[in-house]
Amino acid sequence: MPRTPPAPAVPGSGACARTRGEHLTACEAEVEQEGKALVHAVATFALLER
Prior knowledge:
There is one protein chain. The chain has no helices and three strands. The chain is an all-beta fold. The protein is rod-shaped. It starts with 11 loop residues before the first strand and ends with a strand. The relative contact order is 0.27.
């Protein structure tokens, strides 16, 4: 018997700057679908003055 694929769900996302210092910023982001985390990302950026 063939299976019916599940209906597609729209993923949601959120992001924020966790810490911002004089020279570094740490950011965090998460993508969720149906209340479950799919992806979690953390990034650090150097703030340069030109």
